[in-house]
Amino acid sequence: MKVAAVFKDVRVSARKAKLVVDMVRGRKVEDALAVLKFVPTPAARAVAKAIKSAAANAENNFQMVPAELKIAEIFANEGHTFKRFRPQARGRVTPILKRSTHISVFVAEEGEQSGT
Predict the structure, then answer these.
(1) Beta sheet of 93-109, edge-to-edge order
(2) Between the CA of residue 103 and those of 43, 51, 57, 91, what are the distances in Å?
(3) Strands 3-10 and 69-87, bridge-based pairing
(4) Does domain 3-109 have CATH number 3.10.20.90?
(5) Considering Cα of 24, then 25, then 30, then 33, what sign does the dihedral take?
(6) Which residues on adjacent β-strands are paired with residue 57?
(7) Which of 2, 43, 44, 76 can bridge 12 by disulfide, Cβ–Cβ 3.0-4.6 Å?
(8) Predicted local distance difference test score (pLDDT) of residue 9
């Protein structure tokens, strides 16, 4: 059984979050958190928070053992984009795009087959 956690509107671009997500895909939860502890980016902190939330959901709601959990699926999709403008010379403006991302994590017990 897959247990989900979705962390929405994280103020990190999806492109940068995908680099971190690719590092932990398919790992055990404990190993993934150990790897993310040494990655010095805001995206790593957000991904770690989402993984901890999914593990807590599995433990509290479905009585799964946290040591046996594995990341079955994890992905980062684009969220909302805030559009701001910066003044430039000669009365012009240039756009600034403040991007966000949605991080989705699905964990399952290690012995289970994934449905996909």
Answers:
(1) 3-10, 93-109, 69-87
(2) 10, 10, 16, 39
(3) unpaired
(4) no
(5) positive
(6) none
(7) 43
(8) 96
Task: Look at residue 84 in the predicted model and tell me its pLDDT.
Answer: 98
Rounded Cα distance between 19 and 35, Å, is 13
- Is 42 within 8 Å of 12 (Cβ atoms)? yes
pLDDT digit string (tens) for 72-98? 999 999 999 999 999 999 999 999 999
pLDDT at residue 110, as a whole number: 86
- At residue 111, the pLDDT reads 78
Specify which residues 103 forms β-bridges with.
7, 76
Burial class, 105, CB count within 10 angstroms (exposed 0-12 / middle 13-18 / buried 19+): buried
Residue 2 has pLDDT above 60, yes or no: yes
Domain ranges of the chain: 3-109
